[in-house]
């Protein structure tokens, strides 16, 4: 499955209305608050709009007739109206501000949980920096949208429609003359919107790329310093920064392109209103008070359009951000749990050698990484319970890939992997993880202590104090390994295990996997960085594993695989059974002699 978000983004184009609906749906439980805030806002707008009418009425009925009591009365009414509007605005801002924070809180959680639920292929195809940018910056843009832009947007549209209708009702012809220039604005906006949106999306993508670049250089700072290649990352960063500068400028221009057009047409409207309004007064079909009210309504009509121009930017950015977030939320893990076709009736295993003997079987497996060529070609082999297997072969031959399929980090393109005679895809992730222990070539440790890292994956011991936990560790025969760490279980681990040697990290990963007592333990070059004395210690510990545990060892050092019951050669995507260590060495020697 293609998990490359930037590629998917380009294909996934939805109509604005559908996007907007998705965005409002994302507000989840806050929709009630949104509706209340919307009602307050509508009431406020209506009150605001009645202001000019009251002013016009006061001019025509009290100022022109010099009845100052009436002027005072209407001034009082206007003041009360403005106070109510003020109270409403305050309430609405408070309501939306906190609702927006809760929406963003929920979205960040949803995005983070989604990332946790996706398969390794997703992480292979996306840069961590870009994902961080989606969790942090894109959700923050939605915060701005929900806390400010959304209500202002609706309020301005309401103001626009209401003041336009007022004008058409008060004097239809004058109303039409005043509203007409807005049509030109609409045509202009309509034509340019897709272009503006594209510019904003390109800008967000470049922000993601820049984060990716920063993250990569920070992750690899040791190599950067050791090779004195700071200029290499500087150049790469310069390139993405340049791209970001270009796209940001493009988006900036696109976002402000509407402004002068709005001003021009709003001025034209005022001019038309003045000319035609004076003509109507001259014809005695309009009063001076109503013309003044008309000017106020024309303002209330064109001002929102101008504000919508600014809000449109925020709106477009929010939609582009929502695109990026919703695309990720819509992804699913293609490593689904499926029904087991074998134990549920097809009976294929029944006529093969007793499934109880085999812990694992590969059956005609083909595999390639997403978007790449085939790496494993038609692989079939069986691993018996309680035996030790070694997978050897040249660099890049496919050993780690084979091991990854054993632990279902990926699914084959075709063929089957069976665990305990059952399709490995039919196990839930928990069941599978409890049966298979996998120590990776580059073990990853989390910030915390050695104890925290051993407990990761061994949650059942979490509640134990150090003494009780130490007892468990010693009973498992792992006590002597802890001597390598100056503060034992409490030795601090810095971010990513940067404060430890690779060998020490491998030991922690070993203890973590060993304590789980898996049925199948895969060690991928897990002892490559450990001295021979410690390696012998590990051998003694491995001997203490239950007799039914199967060991798969991937190694380059011959002494590591000497005791293997069976050796497999993995080369150019082929996995070939080579017999015992002695048989394998003989085959190797014969091969050399023949060549
Ligand atoms: N995540 C990945 N995406 C694409 N191709 C990959 C990925 N991981 C490995 N490969 C490719 O798959 C092939 C087999 O790699 P694999 O890591 O399985 O080899 P290996 O035998 O374990 O090598 P080594 O002894 O160096 O660990 C290589 O050609 C490698 O380039």
From TrEMBL:
Cell compartment(s), UniProt: Cell membrane
Keyword list, A-Z: ATP-binding, Membrane, Nucleotide-binding, Transmembrane, Transmembrane helix
Gene3D superfamilies xrefs: ABC transporter type 1, transmembrane domain, P-loop containing nucleotide triphosphate hydrolases
GO molecular function: ABC-type oligopeptide transporter activity; ATP binding; ATP hydrolysis activity
Species, as recorded: Pedobacter psychroterrae
One protein family per Pfam: ABC_tran
Chain segments annotated as transmembrane: 34-59, 71-91, 168-189, 244-265, 271-298
Gene Ontology cellular component list: plasma membrane
Keyword hit for Hydrolase: no
Domain ABC transmembrane type-1: 35-317
Residues annotated as domain ABC transporter: 360-593
Entries under InterPro entries matching the protein: AAA+_ATPase, ABC1_TM_dom, ABC1_TM_sf, ABC_transporter-like_ATP-bd, P-loop_NTPase, Type_1_exporter
Name listed for the protein in its UniProt record: ABC transporter ATP-binding protein
Lineage: Bacteria, Pseudomonadati, Bacteroidota, Sphingobacteriia, Sphingobacteriales
UniProt membrane topology term: Multi-pass membrane protein
């Amino acid at each position: 499955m293609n998990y490359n978000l930037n590629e998917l983004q380009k294909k996934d184009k939805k109509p604005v209305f559908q996007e907007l609906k998705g965005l409002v749906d994302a507000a989840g439980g806050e929709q009630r608050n949104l509706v209340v805030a919307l009602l307050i806002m509508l009431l406020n707008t209506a009150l605001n709009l009645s202001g000019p009418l009251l002013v016009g009425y006061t001019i025509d009925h009290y100022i022109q007739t010099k009845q100052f009591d009436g002027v005072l009365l209407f001034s009082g009414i206007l003041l009360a109206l403005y106070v109510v509007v003020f109270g409403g605005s305050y309430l609405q801002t408070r309501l939306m501000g906190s609702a927006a924070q809760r929406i963003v809180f929920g979205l960040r959680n949803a995005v983070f949980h989604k990332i946790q639920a996706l398969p390794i292929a997703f992480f292979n195809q996306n840069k961590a920096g870009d994902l961080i940018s989606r969790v942090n910056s894109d959700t923050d843009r939605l915060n701005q949208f929900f806390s400010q832009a959304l209500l202002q947007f609706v309020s301005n549209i309401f103001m626009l429609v209401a003041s336009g209708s007022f004008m058409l009702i008060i004097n239809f012809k004058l109303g039409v003359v005043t509203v007409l220039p807005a049509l030109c604005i609409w045509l202009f906006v309509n034509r340019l919107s897709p272009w503006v949106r594209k510019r904003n999306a390109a800008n967000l993508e470049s922000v993601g790329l820049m984060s990716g670049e920063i993250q990569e250089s920070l992750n690899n700072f040791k190599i950067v310093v050791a090779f004195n290649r700071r200029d290499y990352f500087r150049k790469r960063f310069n390139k993405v920064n340049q791209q970001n500068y270009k796209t940001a400028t493009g988006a900036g221009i696109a976002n402000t392109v509407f402004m002068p057009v709005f001003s021009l047409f709003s001025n034209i409207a005022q001019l038309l209103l003045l000319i035609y309004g004076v003509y109507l007064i001259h014809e005695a079909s309009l009063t001076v008070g109503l013309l003044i009210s008309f000017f106020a309504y024309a303002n209330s009509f064109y001002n929102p359009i101008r504000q919508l121009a600014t809000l449109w930017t925020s709106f477009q950015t929010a939609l582009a951000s929502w695109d990026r977030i919703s695309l990720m939320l819509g992804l699913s893990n293609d490593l689904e749990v499926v029904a087991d076709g074998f134990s549920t009736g097809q009976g294929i295993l029944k006529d093969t050698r007793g499934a109880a003997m085999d812990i694992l079987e590969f059956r005609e497996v083909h595999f390639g990484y997403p978007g790449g060529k085939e790496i494993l070609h038609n692989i079939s082999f069986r691993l018996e319970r309680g035996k030790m297997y070694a997978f050897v072969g040249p660099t890049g031959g496919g050993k780690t890939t084979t091991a990854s399929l054993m632990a279902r980090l990926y699914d084959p393109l075709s063929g089957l992997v069976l665990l305990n005679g059952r399709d490995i895809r039919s196990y839930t992730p928990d069941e599978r993880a409890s049966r298979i222990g996998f120590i990776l070539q580059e073990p990853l440790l989390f910030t915390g202590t050695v104890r925290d890292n051993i407990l990761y994956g061994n949650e059942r011991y979490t509640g134990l104090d150090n003494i009780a936990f130490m007892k468990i560790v010693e009973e498992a025969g792992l006590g002597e390994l802890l001597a390598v760490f100056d503060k034992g279980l409490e030795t601090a681990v810095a971010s990513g295990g940067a404060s430890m040697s690779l060998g020490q990290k491998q030991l922690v990963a070993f203890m973590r996997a060993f304590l789980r007592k898996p049925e199948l333990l895969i060690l991928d070059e897990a002892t490559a960085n450990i001295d021979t004395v410690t390696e012998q210690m590990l051998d003694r510990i491995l001997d203490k594993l239950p007799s039914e545990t199967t060991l798969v060892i991937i190694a380059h050092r011959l002494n590591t695989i000497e005791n293997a019951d069976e050796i497999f050669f993995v080369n150019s995507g082929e996995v070939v059974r080579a017999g015992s260590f002695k048989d394998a060495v003989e085959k190797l020697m014969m091969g050399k002699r023949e060549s």
